[in-house]
Write a structure and sequence with these properties.
The protein has one domain. By secondary structure, the chain is an alpha+beta fold. It contains four helices and nine strands; from the N terminus they run αββββββαβββαα. The longest helix is centred in the last third of the chain and has 26 residues.
Length: 214
């Protein structure tokens, strides 16, 4: 029996003739340690999208307040549709009228290691951790490092919790102190302005061409 395509919902929500988001024509794998990414998304409300490579796609959660390096702070993480692996590299502006319209930057990116063990000390596969609603991982990102837990508590609602380890920091507000993309070194505002300038230049060129042709 063929494996169900977990990207069906993702594709149905988007018009790829209008958005530059990757279509994700097939499930894929990074071929190395599993991929982790957090994208800062200035849509109708500013939020952060946490994505983990699990079973050939990016399992995704919306984290309204963004991640915290303090074990004292439990951050709401709402499960959303799977995204294609290529999405980990996506940065830009989703057009008005399209699902998730707004500006996205790659706020953090790296690899992760599964920490969850069974009673015999064997690693529990990530797809099983997800189904059971308890994920424990070690992040090795550009910004976030160390142990993190994702715990489901009601329906699609999970909690993102920093584990107490050498990377924990109760005083640092990492979303405020590190606002830039690890891909472009730009802020959300800079990416948005660049897109706006690009549109203005294209419009001016079209007007000049039209005048010459008249």
């Amino acid at each position: 029996m063929p494996m169900k395509d977990s990207l069906t919902v993702y594709r149905k929500k988007r018009d790829f003739s209008k958005t530059r988001e990757p279509e994700g024509k097939k499930r894929a794998t990074s071929g190395k340690k599993p991929l982790y990414v957090i994208q800062k998304h200035d849509a109708s409300r500013l939020h952060y999208d946490l994505r983990l490579e699990i079973d050939g796609a990016l399992k995704s959660w919306v984290v309204p307040k963004g991640p915290s390096t303090s074990p004292k702070e439990k951050r709401l993480a709402v499960l959303t549709e799977d995204h294609p692996m290529e999405y980990a590299n996506f940065e830009g502006v989703i057009p008005e009228g399209e699902y998730g319209a707004g500006t996205i930057i790659v706020w953090d990116r790296g690899r992760y290691r599964n920490l969850k063990k069974d009673a015999k000390g064997q690693e529990v596969p990530m797809d099983k951790c997800f189904k059971k609603g308890r994920i424990e991982i070690w992040l090795q990102g550009k910004k976030l490092k160390g142990g993190f837990a994702l715990v489901r508590f009601r329906g699609k609602n999970w909690l993102l919790i920093k584990m107490r380890d050498k990377e924990a920091n109760d005083k640092k507000n990492i979303v405020k102190s590190s606002p830039k993309s690890v891909k472009s070194q730009k802020t959300v505002e800079q990416v948005k302005r660049a897109k706006t300038r690009g549109k203005s230049v294209k419009t001016s060129k079209r007007k000049r061409t039209a005048k010459k042709a008249a």
